Every structure is written in structure tokens, then in C-alpha cells.
Amino acid sequence: AVVSTQSTGRCESMRKLNVSGGRETVTSEVIRSMTSNLPFLDTLDVSDCFLLDRAVLSALEENCPGLMELSCSRVYPLGSDDMLCWASRMPSLLFINAYPSIVTERFTEFEQSLSRRLPQIRLNSAEKSDIARPCTALRIPKGSSVLWDVFLSP
User: Fold this and answer.
1) Which of 31, 67, 76, 90 has the fewest CB atoms in 10 Å of its CB?
2) Are 46 and 31 contacting, i.e. CB atoms less than 8 angstroms apart?
3) 3-class state of residue 86 by DSSP
4) Confidence band (pLDDT; 50, 70, 90) for 109?
5) Distance CA 35, CA 8 (A)
6) C-alpha to C-alpha distance for 11 and 1, rounded to whole angstroms
7) Contact 20, 47 (CB under 8 A)
8) Tell me, what DSSP letter sits at residue 128?
């Protein structure tokens, strides 16, 4: 997907963002582009964004140093080792909600490693997102959409 961020400068004070359900539209590059103008983002829900990969973690580390909560349920390409390594570099991170997804294959091991290495981070503390999901009111060519004046295209 390609994103134009020409209008996201107006959103600099945004603290919470929910793009869950992006399935095959929201990629790591989309998240990188969207968060590049959101320096105060502290809560992000990317659950059900199937095209995300470990590059999204680098983007969040660079663009969202104050991130406190990440929800990434059913984002299967993110591995538990990648998540542990990333979380250790995010000093403000307090919550990871990831069920059943990145850690299903080794959930117990991940949970124990997280509590041992990063005891300040709580795993799966919220069953549902408390951030309203954006509605794509405007459709531009088939399969494309606009979220808050940010153009997304496959």
C-alpha cells in the first residue's frame, strides 16, 4: 500500500491510533509513514493487519519512542523473539496485547521471558481495544480508501 502523509501534520498531538482490521491494506510501510508525524502516539492497535512484518517494530521504535501500549493480535509474521528484542528497546512500553497471534506457538515461553526480562510489561491485559476504529467514509478507486485524509492504496 502507498500512503500520502501530506495532511498528517495536523495530527501531531494524536495519542491513540487504531488501524486494526487493515488485513491486506495496512503494511509496515503504511505504519511507518503514518507514525512519522505522530511523535506523541502512546497507544497503537494493529490487530488483524496481516501484512505487517518485523519492519513495523523498527518503525515504531524510530517514530514512537513514548509508545506505552501495542495491540497486535493475529499479526502472525511477528515472532516472539522479535517482540522481546523490540520491547527491551522501548522503555515506556507497559502493555502488549497479542492474542492469539505472535506468541501462540510458544506462548508460555514468551510470557515467562517477558515477565523475567521486562517485568514492567503486562501481556494481554485488555481483551478489546478502547480506541475507536476509523471509518473509511470515502472510497477512491476500487480497493483504495482514505483515512483522515491519508490516502491508502493497494
Assistant:
1) 76
2) yes
3) helix
4) confident
5) 9
6) 21
7) yes
8) S
What is the SS3 assignment for 152?
strand
Indicate the length of the chain as a whole number.
154
How far is residue 143 from each of residues 1, 4, 20, 140, measured CA to CA in Å?
10, 16, 17, 8
DSSP single-letter state for residue 2: E
Strand partners, 128: none
pTM exceeds 0.90 for this model: no
Contacts of 127 (CB under 8 A, 6+ apart): none
Residue 77 has pLDDT above 50, yes or no: yes
Confidence of residue 26 (pLDDT cuts 50, 70, 90): very high
What residues pair up with 96 in beta bridges, in sequence order? 70, 123
Which parts of the chain fold into alpha helices (H)?
Answer: 28-35, 55-63, 80-88, 107-117
